[in-house]
Amino acid sequence: MERFVDSIIRLDEKLFFILNGTHCNVLDPVMKLFSNIPVWIPMYVLIALGFFYKKDWRPGLVALGGLLLTFLLTDQISSNIIKDTVQRLRPSHIPEWEGSIRLLEGKGGLYSFVSSHAANAFGLACFSGLVFRKRWYSVLICCWAFLVSYSRIYVGKHFPLDVICGILLGAVTGWLVYLLYKKIITRYIFSRPCAAS
């Protein structure tokens, strides 16, 4: 089993050097943009406002709570549980790799597995896509989440396996929170008629 894990890690490292080393100057600022989460705050606000487009504001409020819960879970599970347990060094913190990887940002935190960016992005994409149920939105938000995730390898912060597992964590968390959202609005909101205005 240990030999199998070691072979996966070696393959992951090789794939990292291929993906991190494949670049062009035009893509550098684009990938740094996708990697910069605060830049996307206006998009998060628009998504949150989209939950309230119907006259009945109560499902929107539950959806907003679900989105915040998704962010909280993906961030805390990835950063404070998995990273601290696995303790895999980021590519940027491996001393013998210094100068041999393309690092477009600062070194970041010490540990890399799993990618919190990927978990947060796909948590948002999965949960909001299930709430809105619009094909065009699902395609756009998943493309955005994929680019955010890939950018973490491109800028030198994460291994491919960090990103893949972060995507899985985000998607599963977003789906589970959506199930909770559906249960709440079915049992406590749609089962009770709105008070007459």
Descriptive labels:
about 0% strand; mainly alpha; about 200 residues; Vanadium-containing Chloroperoxidase, domain 1
What does this molecule look like?
- The chain has helices at residues 2-21, 27-35, 41-50, 58-86, 116-132, 135-154, 160-189.
- The chain has a single domain, classed as Vanadium-containing Chloroperoxidase, domain 1, CATH 1.20.144.
- With 197 residues, it is an all-alpha fold.
- The model has no long low-confidence stretch (mean pLDDT 91).
Write the layout of secondary structure elements.
Blueprint: H1 2-21, H2 27-35, H3 41-50, H4 58-86, H5 116-132, H6 135-154, H7 160-189
Helix pairs in contact: 2-6, 4-5, 4-7, 5-6, 5-7, 6-7
Short description:
The protein is mainly alpha-helical.
Helix and strand succession? HHHHHHH
Helical proportion, percent range: 55-70%
CATH class: Mainly Alpha
Mean pLDDT comes to 91
Structural class: mainly alpha
Number of strands: 0
Query: What's the alpha carbon Rg, rounded to whole Å?
Result: 19 Å
